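assembly run, all chains below
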Amino acid sequence: MHILEGMLPAQWAIFWWVVTAVILVVGIYQLNKVVRKDREILPLLAISGAFIFVLSSLKLPSAVTMSSSHPTGTGLASVTFGPAITTVLCAIVLLFQTLFLAHGGLTTLGANCFAMGFFGPLLAWGIFKLLQKTSVNLYVTVFLAALTAGFSSYVMTAFQLSLAHGMENFAGFLAIFALTQIPLAILESLIIVVAFKYIAKIKGDFLIKTKTISEEQLEKINA
Amino acid sequence: MSSFKVEYILIAALIIFAAVFVYQTMINDSEFEGADGAASDFIYEINPDYTPIAEPLWEPPGTETESLLFAIQGVIGAFIIGLFFGHYRAVNKFKKQNSKV
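ok done. output:
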């Protein structure tokens, strides 16, 4: 769940917009580079974005807090294209939700885009790269990365709201956003793992082209 | 190791998720409202004088239209996912057939 329109004071709205604008410039630059290098990678980009579209359209009830929130779906894009390109994909989804659904807001788009599009995916990408060097099972690695993307996005949202409305309320915001997200993040991560498995199976060379996994890893999981 | 291990785990998780939800709806009368609304209420609670700096430019007239638009968003994504897997499944299939000839 994003920060609703107008719920951040102007100085914070502008601050997060500036931060996000910088990331978007980097993301668009990276995107151009990736696509120019190999246009055949576009279907992987499309499906990575599609998972954000589908999963973030599902408002799921969370039994922990008796409220609803939606998964972020950014796990796949995070591990395949990295955080900056994920931010670009997220900006498209968030703009759609802002303009047509009054979900989120234009003034809070910068903050929401930073939390869901960059902060969560950055940690997810870091964890993926780190665990990949260890002997941890690749599916477990993808699961933990996606879990981090989904969960930490909302920790960031709670942090952004506390910065604007008083740090003493961090626990309160955390209880609203992060707790709700626990079961949803687990569910969404399992979906991402299954998607990852089938992408590896059906068109594994995409994951090699983006340097997501090595050829040995691909052979191992498809064996 | 079964080759469908991750699928089984996903299905089990979905069943548990749905079962817990149904159970909760029977013992509680919560409407499972959005966490974003809960956050806004919390802001008004800690700072009753807060006025939002902006209003949405346009809002769906009601929950029916809102669910329509959310469904459209999901459908766009699902269409692309289906296209991706369908396309490469067929490509792999014909590659295999041609290599046999």
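The mean pLDDT of chain A is 95.

The beta strands of chain A are 60-62, 67-69.

not gonna interpret more than that til we talk
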